[in-house]
Task: inverse folding
């Protein structure tokens, strides 16, 4: 399969940093970070065991962040067996390791070194591990294990053995390594240089653990730009454009050490036209924040995000009706496969994704879509798998989630609907006010209440000789004052005791 031509675009502003990965001239991945974003992925902390829960096989760890981190039993036990199962060909392979329970390994108040493998998302704290790793361009360093593995991309047995011999000879004791795909063709000198850098990080981290107070960060992972260069900058990369002079010089210094022969690929963007406008990325960026995404041949996707999962509904366009209906449905579903794969990467969607394809009558067409989706997700770097389309036209996809997705990062909950996507109608809002006044009268015996109302509600209350207004006053034996809030959403209202000025909305609401 022909490798895509790759480019990297980095745009900085006072309020955000944006990184775009281009493949064959099209946007493939997008990272957007606000200046207030707290990046924790890959950071190592000197944590304190807050609570051990044997029933959950887990512990909660205080790290000095807003929420305690979650440490599962599987992320505490010896991982050599796991590594051997994954790579399977290491001659140092050991037998099975007896599994200890979480309360046999940890106790409350214990200081522990943990690394973030999933950033805090919504109401969940960070996911943690004690199996530390330091990623370099060619190698991944794994303290406290003797394992040496090689990327499965290297299929030449002799070369695999040679790489392992090199790493074993150069590495320190009780530090394991995996040779990454980018390192398969590197010389012994380059591997030695990277081992030295990675093991220096480990030594500094151990020193910080001894000297730093509990609940502090003792190793900070590289920023998003450096991580992008490490993960994506290779012989297949044609260019890197940066629109910030300071960042341009920082990147040159970094690449000068990493791959000095590739420095000419880094270029400072100096055109009057913005970098993302020139490469036509702004429209794609807007689409990643939209609920609806158009498909090339007339259909569209509706992407809904909830706490538990993301649902994607594939809809037909106007051309689906007629004698070629089955063919048009198939084509729309094929378009959806590629656009969904793209949106998963651009939005960095993880966890469970349920796709509702347009119903197809033939098993052959369903199998075509399964195969098309499998091809579409091949270029995704994140671990991803799927269950073929069910008899109900649904496909379940799981994609590894390590940080908040783009929608979570760049949007906030609507003050009007509270994140539900709906607001009460005027009639429903008035009914709620009626019921709240009934509660206030029955429980608090309020005689004089001020209502803060939106303009549409005020209009309803005062029309037809203020019929609704007088009805409520009479029904609840209360004197009402109406105050208009022109900026309030139509379904918003607030209640105050006029005598004391105290807001009493929450006391009598039905939320």
Result:
């Amino acid at each position: 399969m022909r490798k895509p031509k790759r480019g990297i675009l980095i745009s900085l502003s006072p309020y955000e940093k944006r990184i775009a990965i281009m493949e064959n001239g099209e946007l493939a991945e997008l990272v957007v970070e606000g200046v207030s974003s707290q990046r924790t992925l890959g950071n190592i902390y000197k944590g304190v065991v807050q609570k051990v829960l044997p029933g959950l096989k887990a512990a909660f760890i205080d790290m000095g962040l807003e929420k305690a981190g979650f440490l599962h039993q599987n992320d505490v036990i010896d991982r050599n067996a796991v590594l051997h199962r994954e790579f399977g060909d290491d001659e140092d392979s050991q037998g099975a390791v007896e599994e200890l329970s979480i309360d046999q390994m940890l106790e409350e108040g214990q200081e522990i070194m943990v690394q973030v493998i999933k950033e805090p998302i919504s109401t969940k704290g960070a996911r943690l591990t004690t199996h530390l790793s330091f990623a370099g361009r060619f190698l991944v360093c794994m303290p406290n294990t003797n394992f040496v593995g090689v990327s499965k991309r290297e299929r030449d047995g002799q070369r695999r053995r040679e790489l392992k011999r090199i790493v074993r000879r150069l590495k320190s004791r009780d530090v394991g390594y995996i040779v990454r795909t980018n390192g398969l063709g590197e010389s012994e000198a380059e591997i030695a240089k990277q081992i030295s850098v990675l093991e220096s990080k480990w030594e500094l981290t151990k020193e910080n653990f001894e000297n730093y107070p509990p609940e502090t960060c003792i190793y900070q992972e590289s920023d998003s730009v450096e991580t992008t260069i490490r993960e994506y900058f290779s012989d297949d990369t044609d260019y890197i454009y940066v629109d910030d002079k300071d960042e341009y010089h920082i990147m040159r210094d970094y690449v000068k050490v990493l791959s000095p022969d590739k420095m000419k690929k880094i270029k400072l963007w100096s055109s009057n036209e913005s970098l993302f406008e020139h490469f036509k990325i702004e429209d794609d960026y807007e689409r990643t924040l939209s609920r609806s995404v158009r498909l090339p041949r007339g259909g569209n996707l509706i992407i809904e995000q909830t706490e538990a999962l993301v649902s994607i509904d594939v809809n037909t366009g106007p051309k689906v009706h007629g004698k070629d209906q089955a063919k048009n449905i198939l084509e729309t579903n094929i378009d959806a496969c590629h656009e969904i794969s793209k949106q998963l990467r651009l939005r960095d969607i993880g966890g469970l994704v349920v796709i509702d394809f347009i119903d197809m009558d033939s098993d052959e067409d369903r199998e075509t879509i399964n195969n098309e989706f499998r091809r579409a997700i091949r270029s995704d770097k994140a671990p991803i798998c799927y269950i073929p389309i069910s008899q109900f036209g649904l496909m379940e996809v799981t994609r590894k989630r390590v940080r908040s997705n783009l929608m979570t990062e760049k949007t906030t909950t609507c003050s009007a609907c509270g994140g539900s996507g709906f607001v009460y109608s005027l009639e429903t809002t008035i009914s709620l006010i009626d019921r709240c006044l009934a509660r206030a009268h029955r429980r608090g015996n309020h005689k004089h209440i001020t209502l803060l109302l939106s303009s549409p509600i005020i209009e309803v209350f005062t029309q037809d000789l203020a019929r609704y207004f007088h009805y409520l006053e009479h029904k609840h034996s209360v004197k009402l004052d109406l105050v208009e809030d022109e900026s309030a959403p139509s379904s918003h209202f607030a209640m105050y005791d006029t005598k004391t000025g105290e807001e009493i909305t929450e006391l009598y609401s039905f939320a």
